[in-house]
Amino acid sequence: MQQNPMTVITEILPDKLKELEDYLGPIGTDIKNNPVIKFADYQYLHYCTFFVIPGDHPSPGSSPTPALLAFEANIDGTAKQFVNDLIAKNPEFVNKVYGCCAGYPGNDAGQLASFLLTNDHGANAFYVAHPGQTRDTVYRQRDIRQQIETYIDANRDSLATQDPAAIHAAIVQQLGNIPKPENRPFLTLYGDKLFTGLLWTLGLVLVGGFFGFFGPFVEFLVVLALVAAVVYLLALRWHEMRDKQDDTPWVKTKEREAIQRVEDRQLQNHLTSVIEIKPGAFRFYTLKIVLAAINLVAKLVATKGNLSGIVTIHFARWVILPGNAGGRRRLLFMSNYDGSWENYLGEFIDHASLGLTAVWSSTQQAKDRGFPDTQWLAIKGGSRDEQRFKNFARNSQLPELVWYSAYTDLSVKNIENNRHIHEGLFSTADLAAWLKCL
């Protein structure tokens, strides 16, 4: 089953903001035992988050823009299926939350579902560490590993004298009738080969078209594309030379200190960032193209728990929010990841600085507080300026009112390892390597 992003953005009624925060806050504080909603009851839900995007004054003397409520969910299947399930099981919760928002249609289930789906912005780019791994599959494979470990611990002395084939046979017999793992999605298995083929095809067309191998029309298109690329690069440098660099240190507000206090309490963390896109159509469409490229890589290449060398991200998404009352567009980034914030940002810098810089070089904290100086979109500077980048990232973070993870005890590597164990029950190839997974 395919994993999908749901990103519902709604405007909070000004007089309802405190009521909303007072309602959601205790749920987030006691995510497992609160009496209002049990997120674990939703079998299609991997992660979800509720948080507030604050309103502001776009210009002196203007009316403040309204605060927004963001509801992020990483789900198996469709958003419609999940929304209908959410409303059916917890109508009071959904009505209480969205009764604080503009456009709330009342407690009619059909209208409420339509309201949520209409305000769902999905994602411009969406990364899944393990495509096709449903929440129930993750649970099942975790249970299989635990059963095997329990059996091995109880029979360690007798198993130690047996060869890998005998141990494997004993484990299979002990587990009994275990269902086979589902086949991996086609793009997970062959997407990287498809992507490589696309690159080679594009390269051959460009080279062949430039030398006239495919006729004058293709040659004209190739030359036109090269001229457009040169014009774009010159325009890019013109914009970059006029950018303002943000030299503001990390601002130690109560809000950001609260973010740090709830980090690293368990294996996983969640990051929420909202940042302005630099003004003008040039930056906006540059960002859209970059995110489309990242989305393509996520769908075809980064399908095995590895995003450009980063092996700690479960789900990540980038969403371009509509322009607010001041006409400014914003970029929303959300990520569920293993380990600490420092290590996570460090991995991005070490392994994915090219893509990272290509995205955020088109953003700013404010007019005179831009991303660290960058040349040629991502080739030089940007996130490689580690301290400025980390200050920029920390200052863009927002706290969550509610964050739920369906499996806080499992890392990306744990999930991949458990899948190997499950698949290995139905194969006798390389049993010594399979036993090392246990």
| Helix-strand sequence | EHEEHHHEHHHHHHEHEEHHEEEEHEHH
**Classification by helices and strands:** alpha+beta
* Average pLDDT rating: 92
Strand order of the largest sheet: 4-6-7-5-8-9
Total E-strand runs: 12
What percent of the residues sit in helical stretches (DSSP H or I)?
40-55%
Taking all Cα atoms into account, the compactness measure Rg is 25 Å
Strand-residue proportion: 15-25%
Q: What's the total helix number?
A: 16
Outline: globular
Distance between the termini: 27 Å
Q: Summarize the biggest pleated sheet.
A: 6 strands, antiparallel
Low-confidence stretches: none
Folded structure, characterized:
This is Peroxidase. Keywords: Membrane, Transmembrane, Transmembrane helix. The chain crosses the membrane at residues 194-214, 220-238. The protein is of the alpha+beta class and 438 residues long. Among the domains are: 135-183 and 414-436, no CATH class; 189-399, no CATH class. The protein is 47% helix and 17% strand. The strands form three sheets. A six-stranded antiparallel beta sheet has the order 4-6-7-5-8-9. A hairpin with a 2-residue loop joins strand 8 (363-366) and strand 9. Helix 2 (79-89) crosses helix 3. The two termini are 27 Å apart.
